[in-house]
Amino acid sequence: MAVEEFLKQCQQSGDAAYAAFRSLLERLEDPKTRVDSRIFLSDLYSKVGSSDDCFNKYHFRIQDIQLDQYEGYPGRKKLTMMVIPSIFVPEDWSFTFYEGLNRHPDSIFKDKIVAELGCGNGWISIAIAEKWLPEKVYGLDINPRAVKVSWINLYMNSFDEKGQPIYDVEKKTLLDRVEFHESDLLSYCRERDIQLERIVGCIPQILNPNPEAMSKLITENASEEFLHALSNYCALQGFVEDQFGLGLIARAVEEGIAVIKPTGIMIFNMGGRPGQGVCKRLFERRGFRVTRLWQTKVLQASKSFKAGDTDISALVEIEKNSPHRFEFFMGLSGDEPICARTAWAYGKAGGRISHGLSVYSCQLRQPNQVKVIFEFLKSGFQEISSSLDLSFEDDLVADEKIPFLAYLASILKENSYFPYELPAGCKRFRNLIAGFMKTYHHIPLTSDVRKHS
Protein backbone atom coordinates (compact mmCIF):
# COMPACT_ATOMS: atom_id res chain seq x y z
CA MET A 1 0.00 0.00 0.00
CA ALA A 2 1.28 3.48 -0.86
CA VAL A 3 1.72 6.04 1.90
CA GLU A 4 -0.93 8.33 0.38
CA GLU A 5 -3.47 5.51 0.26
CA PHE A 6 -2.67 4.57 3.87
CA LEU A 7 -3.14 8.18 5.02
CA LYS A 8 -6.42 8.43 3.13
CA GLN A 9 -7.72 5.45 5.10
CA CYS A 10 -6.48 6.90 8.41
CA GLN A 11 -8.15 10.22 7.68
CA GLN A 12 -11.61 8.64 7.72
CA SER A 13 -11.75 8.09 11.49
CA GLY A 14 -9.81 6.92 14.51
CA ASP A 15 -11.25 3.42 14.05
CA ALA A 16 -10.15 3.38 10.41
CA ALA A 17 -6.64 4.49 11.39
CA TYR A 18 -6.45 1.70 13.95
CA ALA A 19 -7.63 -0.86 11.37
CA ALA A 20 -4.91 0.32 8.97
CA PHE A 21 -2.18 -0.06 11.58
CA ARG A 22 -3.52 -3.44 12.69
CA SER A 23 -3.12 -4.67 9.11
CA LEU A 24 0.39 -3.20 9.07
CA LEU A 25 1.19 -5.10 12.30
CA GLU A 26 0.19 -8.38 10.63
CA ARG A 27 2.76 -7.69 7.89
CA LEU A 28 5.39 -6.78 10.50
CA GLU A 29 4.77 -10.11 12.26
CA ASP A 30 5.37 -12.03 9.04
CA PRO A 31 9.15 -12.42 8.41
CA LYS A 32 8.49 -12.42 4.65
CA THR A 33 6.93 -8.93 4.66
CA ARG A 34 8.66 -7.49 7.73
CA VAL A 35 11.46 -5.59 5.98
CA ASP A 36 9.13 -3.84 3.51
CA SER A 37 6.67 -3.01 6.30
CA ARG A 38 9.41 -1.46 8.45
CA ILE A 39 10.60 0.61 5.48
CA PHE A 40 7.00 1.70 4.97
CA LEU A 41 6.88 3.00 8.56
CA SER A 42 10.01 5.06 7.89
CA ASP A 43 8.44 6.52 4.76
CA LEU A 44 5.25 7.26 6.69
CA TYR A 45 7.16 9.11 9.42
CA SER A 46 9.07 11.12 6.83
CA LYS A 47 5.79 12.08 5.17
CA VAL A 48 3.75 13.25 8.17
CA GLY A 49 6.26 14.10 10.91
CA SER A 50 5.15 14.33 14.53
CA SER A 51 2.92 17.41 14.56
CA ASP A 52 -0.42 17.78 16.30
CA ASP A 53 -1.91 18.39 12.87
CA CYS A 54 -1.12 14.79 11.97
CA PHE A 55 -2.78 13.58 15.17
CA ASN A 56 -5.93 15.60 14.50
CA LYS A 57 -6.10 14.90 10.76
CA TYR A 58 -4.92 11.28 10.49
CA HIS A 59 -5.67 10.06 14.04
CA PHE A 60 -2.12 8.97 14.82
CA ARG A 61 1.26 10.48 15.51
CA ILE A 62 4.81 9.16 15.26
CA GLN A 63 7.35 10.95 17.42
CA ASP A 64 10.85 10.60 18.82
CA ILE A 65 11.39 10.20 22.56
CA GLN A 66 14.84 11.41 23.54
CA LEU A 67 16.69 9.07 25.88
CA ASP A 68 20.13 10.67 26.02
CA GLN A 69 18.78 13.38 28.36
CA TYR A 70 18.72 10.83 31.18
CA GLU A 71 21.85 10.48 33.27
CA GLY A 72 24.25 7.68 32.37
CA TYR A 73 22.35 6.54 29.29
CA PRO A 74 24.75 4.37 27.22
CA GLY A 75 22.48 3.21 24.38
CA ARG A 76 20.77 4.81 21.43
CA LYS A 77 19.78 8.44 21.76
CA LYS A 78 16.11 8.09 20.94
CA LEU A 79 13.15 5.78 20.43
CA THR A 80 10.60 6.33 17.67
CA MET A 81 7.08 5.74 18.97
CA MET A 82 3.55 5.87 17.61
CA VAL A 83 0.34 6.79 19.46
CA ILE A 84 -3.36 6.82 18.59
CA PRO A 85 -6.22 8.69 20.35
CA SER A 86 -7.72 5.64 22.11
CA ILE A 87 -4.65 4.87 24.26
CA PHE A 88 -2.70 6.64 26.99
CA VAL A 89 -0.47 9.30 25.40
CA PRO A 90 3.00 9.76 26.99
CA GLU A 91 3.05 12.88 29.13
CA ASP A 92 4.71 14.30 32.25
CA TRP A 93 3.54 11.32 34.31
CA SER A 94 5.37 8.70 32.27
CA PHE A 95 8.50 10.82 31.75
CA THR A 96 8.71 11.43 35.50
CA PHE A 97 8.28 7.69 36.02
CA TYR A 98 11.19 6.91 33.70
CA GLU A 99 13.28 9.55 35.46
CA GLY A 100 12.59 7.72 38.72
CA LEU A 101 13.60 4.38 37.22
CA ASN A 102 16.91 5.94 36.25
CA ARG A 103 17.56 6.76 39.91
CA HIS A 104 18.07 3.06 40.62
CA PRO A 105 21.49 1.44 40.10
CA ASP A 106 22.11 0.20 36.56
CA SER A 107 21.97 -3.39 37.79
CA ILE A 108 18.33 -3.20 38.89
CA PHE A 109 16.90 -4.63 35.64
CA LYS A 110 19.95 -6.44 34.21
CA ASP A 111 19.06 -10.07 33.44
CA LYS A 112 15.80 -9.69 35.42
CA ILE A 113 12.22 -10.70 34.56
CA VAL A 114 10.14 -7.51 34.54
CA ALA A 115 6.46 -6.63 34.15
CA GLU A 116 5.17 -3.15 33.36
CA LEU A 117 1.55 -2.47 34.32
CA GLY A 118 -0.36 -0.05 32.11
CA CYS A 119 2.25 -0.02 29.36
CA GLY A 120 0.28 2.31 27.05
CA ASN A 121 2.17 2.58 23.77
CA GLY A 122 5.02 0.52 25.23
CA TRP A 123 7.75 3.12 25.34
CA ILE A 124 8.86 2.49 28.95
CA SER A 125 9.01 -1.30 28.49
CA ILE A 126 11.09 -0.80 25.34
CA ALA A 127 13.32 1.80 27.05
CA ILE A 128 13.95 -0.56 30.00
CA ALA A 129 14.99 -3.32 27.59
CA GLU A 130 17.16 -0.93 25.58
CA LYS A 131 19.06 0.48 28.55
CA TRP A 132 19.28 -2.32 31.13
CA LEU A 133 19.20 -5.54 29.05
CA PRO A 134 16.70 -7.53 31.17
CA GLU A 135 16.03 -11.18 30.45
CA LYS A 136 12.39 -10.39 29.61
CA VAL A 137 9.98 -7.48 29.87
CA TYR A 138 6.24 -8.18 29.83
CA GLY A 139 4.37 -5.01 28.87
CA LEU A 140 0.78 -5.41 30.10
CA ASP A 141 -2.29 -3.27 29.43
CA ILE A 142 -6.02 -3.86 29.71
CA ASN A 143 -6.60 -1.78 26.55
CA PRO A 144 -6.32 -4.17 23.54
CA ARG A 145 -5.47 -1.35 21.17
CA ALA A 146 -2.59 -0.26 23.39
CA VAL A 147 -1.13 -3.76 23.10
CA LYS A 148 -1.31 -3.71 19.29
CA VAL A 149 0.29 -0.26 19.12
CA SER A 150 3.02 -1.42 21.52
CA TRP A 151 3.88 -4.33 19.24
CA ILE A 152 4.16 -1.93 16.27
CA ASN A 153 6.50 0.28 18.31
CA LEU A 154 8.55 -2.76 19.30
CA TYR A 155 9.05 -3.73 15.65
CA MET A 156 9.78 -0.12 14.74
CA ASN A 157 12.62 0.03 17.28
CA SER A 158 13.93 -3.53 16.81
CA PHE A 159 14.73 -2.83 13.15
CA ASP A 160 16.35 0.18 11.50
CA GLU A 161 14.89 2.36 8.75
CA LYS A 162 16.02 -0.19 6.15
CA GLY A 163 14.36 -3.06 7.99
CA GLN A 164 17.57 -4.57 9.35
CA PRO A 165 17.73 -5.89 12.94
CA ILE A 166 19.42 -3.72 15.59
CA TYR A 167 21.55 -5.84 17.93
CA ASP A 168 22.71 -4.93 21.42
CA VAL A 169 26.03 -5.89 23.03
CA GLU A 170 24.65 -9.36 23.79
CA LYS A 171 23.68 -9.87 20.12
CA LYS A 172 19.97 -9.69 20.90
CA THR A 173 17.27 -7.40 19.52
CA LEU A 174 14.50 -5.71 21.48
CA LEU A 175 12.18 -8.29 19.96
CA ASP A 176 14.08 -10.96 21.90
CA ARG A 177 13.60 -9.13 25.20
CA VAL A 178 10.10 -7.61 25.13
CA GLU A 179 6.55 -8.98 24.82
CA PHE A 180 3.21 -7.18 25.04
CA HIS A 181 -0.01 -8.78 26.21
CA GLU A 182 -3.58 -7.78 27.02
CA SER A 183 -3.94 -8.19 30.76
CA ASP A 184 -6.00 -6.87 33.66
CA LEU A 185 -3.08 -5.86 35.87
CA LEU A 186 -1.00 -9.03 36.47
CA SER A 187 -3.56 -11.61 35.30
CA TYR A 188 -1.36 -12.67 32.36
CA CYS A 189 1.53 -13.52 34.70
CA ARG A 190 -0.64 -15.06 37.41
CA GLU A 191 -2.42 -17.40 35.00
CA ARG A 192 0.91 -18.63 33.58
CA ASP A 193 2.72 -18.77 36.95
CA ILE A 194 5.38 -16.31 35.74
CA GLN A 195 7.53 -15.34 38.71
CA LEU A 196 8.70 -11.73 38.44
CA GLU A 197 11.74 -9.97 39.83
CA ARG A 198 10.62 -6.43 39.06
CA ILE A 199 7.13 -4.94 38.74
CA VAL A 200 6.80 -1.34 37.54
CA GLY A 201 3.64 0.63 36.95
CA CYS A 202 2.19 3.99 36.02
CA ILE A 203 -1.54 3.29 36.25
CA PRO A 204 -4.70 5.43 36.65
CA GLN A 205 -5.52 6.96 40.03
CA ILE A 206 -8.76 8.80 39.32
CA LEU A 207 -12.18 7.14 39.60
CA ASN A 208 -14.25 7.29 36.43
CA PRO A 209 -17.02 9.90 36.86
CA ASN A 210 -19.26 7.44 34.99
CA PRO A 211 -18.79 4.13 36.90
CA GLU A 212 -21.21 2.19 34.67
CA ALA A 213 -18.96 2.85 31.68
CA MET A 214 -16.17 0.79 33.27
CA SER A 215 -18.34 -2.33 33.35
CA LYS A 216 -18.61 -2.66 29.56
CA LEU A 217 -17.02 -5.57 27.75
CA ILE A 218 -13.47 -4.68 26.74
CA THR A 219 -12.74 -5.38 23.06
CA GLU A 220 -10.53 -3.71 20.48
CA ASN A 221 -13.69 -2.68 18.60
CA ALA A 222 -15.04 -0.68 21.56
CA SER A 223 -15.46 3.06 21.10
CA GLU A 224 -12.44 5.36 21.20
CA GLU A 225 -13.98 7.24 24.14
CA PHE A 226 -14.39 4.05 26.19
CA LEU A 227 -10.88 2.79 25.48
CA HIS A 228 -9.38 6.21 26.22
CA ALA A 229 -11.24 6.32 29.55
CA LEU A 230 -10.01 2.80 30.27
CA SER A 231 -6.43 4.08 30.01
CA ASN A 232 -7.00 7.21 32.11
CA TYR A 233 -9.51 6.25 34.82
CA CYS A 234 -10.02 3.40 37.25
CA ALA A 235 -13.10 1.78 38.78
CA LEU A 236 -13.82 0.97 42.41
CA GLN A 237 -11.70 -2.03 43.46
CA GLY A 238 -13.12 -2.82 46.90
CA PHE A 239 -10.12 -1.47 48.83
CA VAL A 240 -10.07 1.19 51.53
CA GLU A 241 -7.71 3.17 49.27
CA ASP A 242 -10.54 3.65 46.73
CA GLN A 243 -11.53 6.86 48.51
CA PHE A 244 -8.17 8.36 47.49
CA GLY A 245 -8.22 7.02 43.93
CA LEU A 246 -5.53 4.47 44.84
CA GLY A 247 -7.65 1.31 44.75
CA LEU A 248 -6.23 0.06 41.46
CA ILE A 249 -2.67 0.47 42.71
CA ALA A 250 -3.62 -1.34 45.95
CA ARG A 251 -4.95 -4.28 43.91
CA ALA A 252 -1.83 -4.26 41.74
CA VAL A 253 0.37 -4.41 44.86
CA GLU A 254 -1.55 -7.33 46.36
CA GLU A 255 -1.51 -9.21 43.05
CA GLY A 256 2.21 -8.47 42.85
CA ILE A 257 2.86 -10.04 46.26
CA ALA A 258 1.68 -13.38 44.84
CA VAL A 259 3.96 -13.38 41.77
CA ILE A 260 7.06 -11.45 42.80
CA LYS A 261 10.16 -13.33 43.92
CA PRO A 262 11.30 -12.84 47.57
CA THR A 263 14.04 -10.37 46.60
CA GLY A 264 11.83 -8.60 44.05
CA ILE A 265 11.17 -4.87 43.84
CA MET A 266 8.01 -2.98 42.87
CA ILE A 267 8.25 0.57 41.50
CA PHE A 268 5.14 2.74 41.11
CA ASN A 269 4.49 6.24 39.85
CA MET A 270 1.96 8.02 42.07
CA GLY A 271 0.31 11.39 41.99
CA GLY A 272 0.67 13.16 45.32
CA ARG A 273 -2.89 14.49 45.53
CA PRO A 274 -3.86 12.14 48.41
CA GLY A 275 -0.76 13.27 50.33
CA GLN A 276 2.63 11.59 50.67
CA GLY A 277 1.64 9.86 53.92
CA VAL A 278 -1.34 8.14 52.31
CA CYS A 279 0.73 7.02 49.32
CA LYS A 280 3.48 5.52 51.49
CA ARG A 281 1.02 3.85 53.85
CA LEU A 282 -0.56 1.95 50.95
CA PHE A 283 2.70 -0.01 50.69
CA GLU A 284 3.81 -0.03 54.33
CA ARG A 285 0.64 -1.57 55.72
CA ARG A 286 1.12 -4.45 53.29
CA GLY A 287 4.58 -5.22 54.64
CA PHE A 288 6.82 -3.18 52.32
CA ARG A 289 9.82 -1.00 52.97
CA VAL A 290 9.36 2.15 50.88
CA THR A 291 11.89 4.51 49.30
CA ARG A 292 10.91 7.62 47.37
CA LEU A 293 13.21 7.69 44.34
CA TRP A 294 12.11 10.89 42.69
CA GLN A 295 9.59 13.69 43.08
CA THR A 296 8.49 16.60 40.93
CA LYS A 297 5.37 18.71 40.43
CA VAL A 298 2.99 18.88 37.50
CA LEU A 299 0.41 21.54 36.75
CA GLN A 300 -3.30 20.92 36.75
CA ALA A 301 -4.71 21.86 33.35
CA SER A 302 -6.44 25.22 33.57
CA LYS A 303 -9.57 24.07 31.74
CA SER A 304 -12.03 22.96 34.44
CA PHE A 305 -9.00 22.63 36.70
CA LYS A 306 -8.20 19.16 35.43
CA ALA A 307 -5.04 17.11 35.12
CA GLY A 308 -5.29 15.63 31.64
CA ASP A 309 -8.93 14.52 31.73
CA THR A 310 -9.32 14.18 35.48
CA ASP A 311 -11.46 16.58 37.50
CA ILE A 312 -10.63 17.52 41.10
CA SER A 313 -14.19 18.49 42.06
CA ALA A 314 -14.76 14.91 43.31
CA LEU A 315 -11.87 15.42 45.74
CA VAL A 316 -13.54 18.55 47.06
CA GLU A 317 -16.65 16.49 47.82
CA ILE A 318 -14.59 13.89 49.69
CA GLU A 319 -13.06 16.62 51.86
CA LYS A 320 -16.53 17.90 52.73
CA ASN A 321 -17.51 14.49 54.08
CA SER A 322 -14.29 13.37 55.76
CA PRO A 323 -11.40 14.77 57.79
CA HIS A 324 -8.90 13.92 55.06
CA ARG A 325 -7.25 16.75 53.13
CA PHE A 326 -5.75 16.27 49.69
CA GLU A 327 -2.48 17.92 48.76
CA PHE A 328 -2.03 20.58 46.08
CA PHE A 329 0.32 23.53 45.61
CA MET A 330 0.04 27.07 44.28
CA GLY A 331 2.09 27.02 41.08
CA LEU A 332 5.21 24.93 40.62
CA SER A 333 7.34 26.75 43.19
CA GLY A 334 5.00 26.64 46.19
CA ASP A 335 6.13 24.41 49.05
CA GLU A 336 3.18 24.76 51.42
CA PRO A 337 0.41 22.26 50.54
CA ILE A 338 -3.21 23.40 50.18
CA CYS A 339 -6.35 21.26 50.27
CA ALA A 340 -8.55 20.43 47.27
CA ARG A 341 -11.18 22.98 48.25
CA THR A 342 -8.62 25.80 48.40
CA ALA A 343 -7.02 24.57 45.16
CA TRP A 344 -10.40 24.61 43.43
CA ALA A 345 -11.12 28.17 44.53
CA TYR A 346 -7.61 29.34 43.64
CA GLY A 347 -7.84 27.75 40.21
CA LYS A 348 -11.29 29.21 39.60
CA ALA A 349 -9.83 32.64 40.33
CA GLY A 350 -7.21 32.12 37.63
CA GLY A 351 -4.33 30.74 39.70
CA ARG A 352 -2.15 27.86 38.58
CA ILE A 353 -2.44 24.66 40.64
CA SER A 354 0.08 21.82 40.81
CA HIS A 355 0.40 18.53 42.65
CA GLY A 356 3.30 16.27 43.53
CA LEU A 357 4.32 13.33 41.39
CA SER A 358 6.52 10.72 43.05
CA VAL A 359 8.20 7.45 42.14
CA TYR A 360 8.27 4.89 44.97
CA SER A 361 10.45 1.77 45.18
CA CYS A 362 9.11 -0.97 47.48
CA GLN A 363 10.48 -4.26 48.77
CA LEU A 364 8.85 -6.76 51.13
CA ARG A 365 10.58 -6.80 54.51
CA GLN A 366 9.67 -10.45 55.22
CA PRO A 367 8.57 -11.71 51.81
CA ASN A 368 7.89 -15.38 52.48
CA GLN A 369 5.77 -14.67 55.56
CA VAL A 370 3.86 -11.80 53.91
CA LYS A 371 3.10 -14.05 50.93
CA VAL A 372 1.59 -16.63 53.32
CA ILE A 373 -0.58 -13.96 54.97
CA PHE A 374 -1.99 -12.62 51.70
CA GLU A 375 -2.52 -16.10 50.27
CA PHE A 376 -4.62 -16.85 53.35
CA LEU A 377 -6.63 -13.63 52.98
CA LYS A 378 -7.65 -14.64 49.46
CA SER A 379 -9.33 -17.79 50.78
CA GLY A 380 -12.49 -16.21 52.14
CA PHE A 381 -11.00 -13.57 54.44
CA GLN A 382 -10.59 -10.70 51.96
CA GLU A 383 -12.62 -8.32 54.15
CA ILE A 384 -9.88 -8.49 56.80
CA SER A 385 -7.33 -6.93 54.44
CA SER A 386 -8.85 -3.46 54.92
CA SER A 387 -7.80 -3.50 58.59
CA LEU A 388 -4.50 -5.34 58.09
CA ASP A 389 -1.47 -3.29 59.15
CA LEU A 390 2.01 -4.74 58.71
CA SER A 391 3.80 -1.43 59.14
CA PHE A 392 6.21 -1.41 62.09
CA GLU A 393 8.72 1.30 62.88
CA ASP A 394 10.84 -1.14 64.87
CA ASP A 395 12.31 -4.03 62.86
CA LEU A 396 12.47 -6.15 66.01
CA VAL A 397 8.72 -5.82 66.45
CA ALA A 398 8.18 -6.69 62.79
CA ASP A 399 10.45 -9.72 63.15
CA GLU A 400 8.22 -10.95 65.97
CA LYS A 401 4.73 -10.10 64.73
CA ILE A 402 4.87 -10.85 61.00
CA PRO A 403 6.09 -14.45 61.45
CA PHE A 404 3.40 -14.98 64.12
CA LEU A 405 0.68 -13.72 61.73
CA ALA A 406 2.06 -15.96 58.99
CA TYR A 407 1.96 -18.95 61.37
CA LEU A 408 -1.60 -18.08 62.41
CA ALA A 409 -2.62 -17.73 58.74
CA SER A 410 -1.15 -21.14 57.87
CA ILE A 411 -3.03 -22.80 60.77
CA LEU A 412 -6.33 -21.10 59.89
CA LYS A 413 -5.95 -21.99 56.22
CA GLU A 414 -5.90 -25.69 57.13
CA ASN A 415 -8.54 -25.39 59.88
CA SER A 416 -11.15 -22.67 59.90
CA TYR A 417 -11.44 -23.14 63.68
CA PHE A 418 -9.12 -23.70 66.65
CA PRO A 419 -9.17 -27.20 68.15
CA TYR A 420 -10.91 -27.46 71.52
CA GLU A 421 -8.53 -27.16 74.46
CA LEU A 422 -8.94 -28.55 77.95
CA PRO A 423 -9.83 -26.05 80.71
CA ALA A 424 -6.23 -26.26 81.88
CA GLY A 425 -5.15 -24.79 78.53
CA CYS A 426 -2.85 -25.86 75.73
CA LYS A 427 -0.12 -28.23 76.96
CA ARG A 428 2.42 -26.73 74.56
CA PHE A 429 1.70 -23.26 75.95
CA ARG A 430 1.96 -24.57 79.54
CA ASN A 431 5.36 -26.07 78.68
CA LEU A 432 6.54 -22.68 77.41
CA ILE A 433 5.38 -20.95 80.61
CA ALA A 434 6.98 -23.61 82.80
CA GLY A 435 10.25 -23.34 80.88
CA PHE A 436 10.22 -19.56 81.18
CA MET A 437 9.60 -19.65 84.96
CA LYS A 438 12.31 -22.28 85.48
CA THR A 439 14.93 -20.49 83.34
CA TYR A 440 14.44 -16.92 84.50
CA HIS A 441 12.91 -17.27 87.97
CA HIS A 442 14.26 -20.67 89.06
CA ILE A 443 10.78 -21.91 89.92
CA PRO A 444 10.61 -25.67 89.16
CA LEU A 445 7.20 -25.74 87.45
CA THR A 446 6.03 -28.45 85.03
CA SER A 447 3.20 -28.49 82.55
CA ASP A 448 1.36 -31.15 84.55
CA VAL A 449 -1.48 -29.36 86.34
CA ARG A 450 -2.09 -32.26 88.73
CA LYS A 451 1.34 -31.90 90.37
CA HIS A 452 0.57 -28.34 91.42
CA SER A 453 -3.04 -28.72 92.51
Describe the structure.
InterPro entries: SAM-dependent_MTases_sf. GO terms for molecular function: methyltransferase activity. The structure is a single chain. With 453 residues, the protein is α/β, with parallel strands linked by helices. The protein has a domain at 420-453. It has helices spanning 3-12, 14-29, 34-48, 52-58, 92-101, 123-132, 144-158, 174-177, 187-191, 224-232, 247-259, 276-284, 313-320, 340-348, 367-377, 395-414, 427-441, and strands at residues 61-66, 78-83, 113-117, 136-141, 178-182, 196-201, 260-271, 288-299, 306-307, 310-311, 329-330, 353-364. β3 (113-117), α6 and β4 (136-141) form a beta-alpha-beta unit. The relative contact order is 0.08.
Summarize the structure.
The protein contains 17 helices and twelve strands. It is α/β, with parallel strands linked by helices and 453 residues long. It has a domain at 420-453.
Q: Helix amount, in percent?
A: 40-55%
- Which structural class should the secondary elements be placed in? alpha/beta
Q: Any low-confidence stretches, pLDDT <50, length ≥5?
A: 303-310
Number of helices: 17
Protein name: Methionine S-methyltransferase-like
InterPro entries: SAM-dependent_MTases_sf (IPR029063)
Keywords: Methyltransferase, Transferase
GO molecular function: methyltransferase activity
Which key phrases capture this entry?
17 helices, 453 residues, two-stranded antiparallel ribbon, 12 strands, single chain, globular, eight-stranded mixed sheet, alpha/beta
SSE blueprint and pairings:
Elements: H1 3-12, H2 14-29, H3 34-48, H4 52-58, E1 61-66, E2 78-83, H5 92-101, E3 113-117, H6 123-132, E4 136-141, H7 144-158, H8 174-177, E5 178-182, H9 187-191, E6 196-201, H10 224-232, H11 247-259, E7 260-271, H12 276-284, E8 288-299, E9 306-307, E10 310-311, H13 313-320, E11 329-330, H14 340-348, E12 353-364, H15 367-377, H16 395-414, H17 427-441
Pfam family, one: PrmA
Protein name: Methionine S-methyltransferase-like
Organism: Gossypium australe
